[in-house]
Each structure stands twice: as C-alpha cells, then as structure tokens.
Amino acid sequence: MTESMFKPGAIPKQVTLRESAARILLAQIMSGELNEGEIYSVAMVATNLGISPTPVREAVLELADKGLLTVHKNRGFTIPVLTKPMMQEIHHIRFLLEAPSTVRAGMQLSDADAAELRDLAEMTVEAAKSGDLVNYVELDREFHGRFLSVLEMPLLVRLIMDYRDRARLIGLRARLGSDEIIEAAKEHIALVDAAVARDEAALARIIANHLEMTLKRSLEGC
After folding, report:
1. 8, β-bridge pairs
2. Which one of 48, 68, 185, 215 is CB 3.0 to 4.6 Å from 128, fit for a cystine?
3. Would the CATH topology of 17-78 be identical to that of 84-220?
4. How far is CA 153 from CA 109, 138, 145, 173, 187, in A?
5. So where are the chain's domains?
C-alpha cells in the first residue's frame, strides 16, 4: 500500500470518520488503485489516514456488504478480481437501467433540480481539473444519484448506483486533469442543459456517449 493512497489529513471534518473512510476507499477501489487480490490491513489504512481502526473497520464492512471488497478474518480485506467479461456485463446492465432512467428523469427535472444539479456538475468539472480523486468520484456519484432521484424510485436508484460503484476506471488518478476526463465531466452540464430544454433525443445521446466512454476507459485497464 503506497503512502499516496491514504494520506494523513485526508479526512474532512464535516462528515463522520466512517463516511470519510468509506469515500476514500470507494474512490481507491473505483480507480483501481487498490490492487485486486492484495491483502490490505485495516490498521495500516487507519494509520495512513491518521484515525483509529474502528471507523475504517466499519467502512470496510459497509463496502463488503455491497460486494465491493472481501473481508478476511484477522487478516484484512481484498478487492475482488473483476474480469473483462464481468466488466462488460456490469456496463451492459448500466446501459439497460441507467440510460433510460436518466432520460426519463431529465424529462421530469424541475428548475430547482436543474439549478442544484448544475452546481454539482460545475463542481465535478473543477474536481476533474484539480486532480482531486476522492472529491471527483464523490461529486460524480452525487450528481448521477441526485439526477435519478427525481424519479422517486429509490429501489431503482439504489440498484443503479450499486452497479456504478462496481465499475472500475483503472488509472483514473493519472487521467484527472486531462482533456478526456474534463470533457466527460462537462457532459454533466450538457445533461442538465438538455433536461431544461426537454430535449429527449439529446438526453439519450449524451448519456449513451457518457456510458460508452466509461466502458471504453474501463476496458482499457483490464
């Protein structure tokens, strides 16, 4: 485990230590910075974050419940191996669920929803430009979850978000700040614009491209 992965002082003060540890671990899993099959110690993660093992252990159990990591009693945790066919299946499920749901949500977006989502979208672009991995992953996740929430179908949204969390973008940290990732972040703004215009075709085109490019970047790391 490298020092750059978990740095002291990385925990923001406005959320609980468990929530912050879970955010950091999720970002590391999704970006592929935690190696598949390698055993990671809760104590080591806690030390590198500058917090006690308890909130890290709670975060690990939370992510294990979602199938994002595997706990090994008295040893630590590992990241499950995600093969290319498994990655393709995850993205196929996302195309089936997330694409039409995003279009439907966009056609229902209120002005207040749009204003809030535009702020989130712009913050995501800034995180992409600055290279802030944890904040970028968190804002990207928050944007899509908030966008879909207008459907008022929490079970569907939870299912979609679970599959989003299972996808991996190997090497994401190195790509942050690149034109490729900044343009991907800007697609969030385009989604809001299309929703405000009630342009169903544009919504479908933007989310399809967003998912296709995500799959492409995921498979490049397999």
Report:
1. none
2. 185
3. no
4. 14, 21, 11, 32, 24
5. 17-78, 84-220
* Mean pLDDT for all residues in the chain: 88
CATH architecture of the domain formed by 17-78: Orthogonal Bundle (1.10)
Instruction: Report the alpha-carbon distance of residue 176 to residue 198 in Å, rounded.
Output: 31
Alpha helices in the chain (DSSP H): 17-30, 42-49, 53-65, 84-106, 111-130, 133-149, 154-166, 172-175, 179-196, 200-220
Q: Choose among 2, 79, 4, 6: nearest CA to 46.
A: 6
Task: Locate 9 and state its tokens.
Answer: 């002082």
Report the pLDDT value the prediction gives residue 3, as an integer from 0 to 100. Answer: 40
As a whole number, mean pLDDT of residues 31-53 equals 90
- Token look-up 């609980």 returns 16
Q: How far apart are CA 97 and CA 146, in angstroms?
A: 16
The angle formed by the CA atoms of residues 217, 6 and 17, to the nearest 5 degrees, is 110
